[in-house]
Amino acid sequence: MFKMINYYLFAFIAINGDANDRYKGYKFKPDDSKVERDVDKPNWLSEYIPEWQVVMPKSFLEVSGSQFFLFEVKTPRDKRTIEKFNKKKKEYLVGNREVYFNSSWNSAAVMHDNNVEFLHGPGLVFSTGHRGHDYFGCIESRPLFEVSMIEGVKNAIWIITGKGDELHYDGVNENIKVTVYDGETTQKYFEYYAMMTSYTNKPWKDFDFVLGATRDRSSPLFNDEFRGKKLFAKAYINDFDNNDKLDVVIWHRQYYSTRVSDKDRKGFTFEKEWFTRYEENKKHFFEKELTIDDGRKLLGNAGLTWKDGFPRDNRLCEEKKTSIPMMPRVIDSGIAY
Q1: What is the number of other CB atoms lying within 10 angstroms of the CB of residue 82?
Q2: What are 181's strand-pairing partners?
Q3: Residue 131 burial (CB < 10 Å; 0-12/13-18/19+)?
Q4: What string of H, E and C letters represents the secondary structure of 160-185?
């Protein structure tokens, strides 16, 4: 009888495999090898962009029959074009299609099943990143790529957007957002802010940096003291609890301005942290609770530190520079970055 039980157990394992090996050896590997950066405007955008506006492509990727396109739109400033612009600006609908007549804008759009959807924008939705006022390494240098994630589903699409400005009175206000889509259905998996900053470069009252113009009380950075702040987040992807379901763990760390009275250091020091977790379920991802202690334990058991998360380092830089810091002006002896 014992031999018979062993025989059937062996046969079951041989057919079904190890119960927890679906993601054994999984590696998160962003792939932009199929992304094109010099393409013509797709025909399906013609209904949304007047003929006198110029389309400047940033990234184009076709996967599973869907076309993802990140692009900028510019309006030439010659007199004839301006006259056309002012005349057409009064029109809102053309053939029951919404048309965008802003003088300049950018967007991330997708054509799927003969339907066009603007995933981000139209507006000013691309981060200036390391060429601008604040940044997180060079995460924005490759704003479109695919990643092998859920087994049995063709690659997920990662899109990195953001916006920011630096005005004389308003200070620096930047954000970089990561949004992940199913490459087949274009359904959104999850999204998070990889970076969010708000501060001025001049000290005021108690702080070396105070909040910029973004003083929305719903913002994670808002505070009654108007203390300047920065928020960064790293992503970790694997089947951490070995239940054959892929996990996405986001580690968020928030920093606030040093005080004017602190003569020895000027920058942003650690304020707080938290974790967000998503778990694969029926070819999608659903959020699950993850406490700070459990989040640290989960990553620690996997041998992962802050530095190991995405974006891992500044190798994303198009110019391959290694001098661009990951987290400028951050003072944090508790982590390597």
Answers
A1: 14
A2: 157, 188
A3: exposed
A4: EEEEEEEECCCEEEEEEEEEEEECCC
The C-alpha atoms of residue 233 and residue 231 are separated, in whole angstroms, by 7
CA distance 231 to 218: 15
Q: Give the pTM.
A: 0.87
Reduced to 3 states, what is the DSSP secondary structure of residue 137?
A: coil
For residue 178, the one-letter residue type is: V
Under 8 Å between Cβ of 196 and 178 = no
Tokens describing residue 15: 């057919």
Pull the structure tokens for residue 125.
Answer: 């939705």
User: Which residues lie below 8 Å from residue 3, measured CB to CB, with a gap of 6+?
Assistant: none
- For residues 165, 168, 171, 175, the Cα torsion angle rounded to the nearest 10 degrees is 0
Q: In angstroms, what CA-CA distances link 212 with 177, 197, 202, 232, 298?
A: 19, 9, 11, 17, 35
The total of other beta-carbon atoms located within 10 Å of residue 103's CB is 14
| Chain-centroid distance, C-alpha 254 | 17
Tokens 């090996």, residue?
21
DSSP characters over 275-325? EEEEEE-SSSEEEE---HHHHHHHHHHTT--GGGSBS-SGGG-TT--S-S-
- SS3 state at 123: strand
In the chain (337 residues long), the average pLDDT of successive 10-residue segments reads 41 40 88 93 88 89 94 82 69 56 83 93 83 86 93 90 69 90 94 94 88 72 91 96 95 96 93 97 93 97 95 70 80 88
Query: CB of 278 within 8 A of CB of 248?
Result: yes
Give the pairing type, strands 268-280 and 330-331: parallel
CB-side neighbour CA atoms (13 Å) of 177: 14
Q: Which of 187, 197, 175, 118 is nearest to 150 (CA)?
A: 187
In terms of Cα–Cα distance, which of 49, 93, 98 is closest to 74? 49
Question: What letter represents residue 207's amino acid?
Answer: F
Domain ranges of the chain: 24-331
